[in-house]
Automatic annotation (TrEMBL):
Sequence ranges assigned to domain Bacterial sugar transferase in this UniProt record: 270-453
Membrane topology, record value: Multi-pass membrane protein
Top-level enzyme category: transferase
Its EC number(s): 2.7.8.31
Protein name listed in UniProt: UDP-glucose:undecaprenyl-phosphate glucose-1-phosphate transferase
Organism: Paraburkholderia fynbosensis
Length: 461
């Protein structure tokens, strides 16, 4: 059944790619009837979509997962497909045969169709599950507090398609399960009989790593039954980030306790998006970059760009670029003075650039080079790293991913001068929250907030 659903989804995707091309053609002119190359390009994108979409998980089950994340995954996958189509056109020297306006319409219309189709399907399934259909019955094994927590999550998301039907409290003497609608068992035998009698589909083991004998006993008990057994280890006291993921190392599963929460595939998607976004931004902003460069050069003596060493992912040092906003000055070795309000070193042009964050635009070159990301923890000067690493808990973990031009801390107001340790602590808290809750949708939210409301801020001086 699952294979048939996957096949059907792929057929629909091909149909939507073709439909999007046809609709785009009807908006202005019937380009598809004009040239066979148009159809060849459309078929290439359709075939490439079938090849690349599975890598982005768009055909996996999204039961209990975010619709916004689904839309983000589909959008990113489709943009990469169309990016490859552009590369193909330019490689074959056929870009002059295709209308750029039609290509833009086709990309937008097909993207909207792909997302709408999935959201409509997701909503239909959610309504069915909310009405009691297509449900997976779940039995839960864990301590009373753990069972209570997962029961609340299941009840808070009725459209996810899970229904708790049984609980085995491993520590009845310490905590009890107060939910009266779910039967609570005090032995493995009674739980096993209930699961088999009532056709329970899922068994979730909310157990700690020290309870291996019970885990093995439960797996052995249901070895010959068609029950999905999912181990959700309680590693909250050990894990650096909430919801630390499971990765595969040398063909073996491993749980990240103290490591980057972004998987290899997530890092790859982020990397691809960063390079495409940076290239597009530099092309689109080229006239503005030139105008700012001229203004900086005329404002005071010195170079157009300010260069400084910063730490990147895994502590690697790189050179960051900004438009120079201060007059040339010297400081004692190992000492770095942050800009303060009404700082006499800042030029008039520099004050405007800093206030609007336009001085940060050259960092798109850092993103294009792979030193930085569009979104991530803001990098600090090396002197500040040496100071705050010793006094701010968790500071070093900011370097588990690439630093960003903008970030979660910045759009929440934590930017500018850090004249008190408390300010840096709050900034680090927001950076670690971003690492622990990263998603493509969150990146889009941060970029949108930066563009709409984050360019000018009272702490930018």
């Amino acid at each position: 059944m699952r294979k048939f659903q996957d096949l059907l989804a792929r057929v629909f995707d091909v149909a939507l790619v073709l439909a999007g091309a046809a609709l785009a053609s009807q908006i202005r002119f019937d380009y598809l009837a004009q040239s066979g190359f148009y159809w060849a390009l459309v078929m290439f994108s359709a075939a490439f979509a079938l090849a690349i979409f599975p890598a982005f998980g768009v055909y996996e089950s999204w039961r209990g997962r975010s619709k916004l994340a689904l839309a983000g995954q589909v959008s990113l996958a489709w943009l990469i497909v169309q990016g490859c189509a552009l590369v193909l056109m330019y490689s074959l020297h056929r870009s002059d045969l295709v209308s750029r306006l039609w290509f833009s319409y086709w990309t937008a219309v097909t993207g909207a169709l792909l997302i709408s189709y999935r959201l409509i399907t997701h909503a239909a399934l959610a309504r069915a599950r909310g009405a009691g259909m297509n449900l997976h019955q779940v039995a839960i094994v864990g301590s009373g507090s753990q069972c209570e927590a997962i029961l609340r999550r299941i009840e808070a998301a009725p459209t996810a398609g899970f229904r708790a039907t049984a609980v085995y409290n491993t520590r009845p003497d310490e905590t009890s399960v107060t939910n009266s609608r779910v039967p609570v068992f005090d032995s493995v035998d009674a739980l096993a009989d209930y699961i088999r009698t009532n056709d329970v589909h899922e068994l979730w083991l909310m157990l700690s790593l020290s309870e291996e004998p019970l885990i093995c006993a439960l797996i052995g008990r249901f070895r010959d039954d068609l029950v999905n057994i999912r181990f959700m280890p309680d590693v909250r006291s050990h894990a650096l980030f909430e919801g630390s993921g499971v990765v595969e190392l040398l063909g073996m599963p491993a749980i990240n306790l103290v490591a980057s929460p972004l998987s290899a595939s997530s890092m790859l998607k982020k990397e691809i998006f960063d390079r495409l976004f940076a290239a597009a931004a530099l092309i689109a902003l080229a006239p503005l970059l030139l105008a700012i460069a001229i203004a900086v050069k005329l404002s005071s003596r010195g170079p157009v760009l300010f260069k400084q060493k910063r730490k990147g992912a895994d502590g690697r040092v790189f050179t960051i670029y900004k438009f120079r906003s201060m007059r040339l000055h010297t400081e004692a070795k190992g000492v770095l003075s942050q800009a303060t309000r009404d700082d006499s070193r800042v030029t008039k042009v520099g004050a405007f650039l800093r206030r609007t964050s336009l001085d940060e635009l050259p960092q798109f070159f850092n993103v294009l080079r792979g030193d930085m990301s569009v979104v991530g923890p803001r990098p600090h000067a090396l002197e500040h790293d040496d100071l705050y690493q010793k006094v701010v808990a968790g500071y070093i973990n900011r370097y588990r991913i690439k630093p960003g031009i903008t970030g979660w801390a910045q759009i929440n107001g934590f930017r500018g001068e850090t004249d008190r340790i408390e300010k840096m602590e709050r900034r680090v808290e927001h950076d670690l929250y971003y690492l622990g809750h990263w998603s493509f949708a969150l990146d889009m939210r941060i970029i949108g907030a930066t563009i709409v409301a984050g360019l000018v801020h009272r702490n930018a001086y």
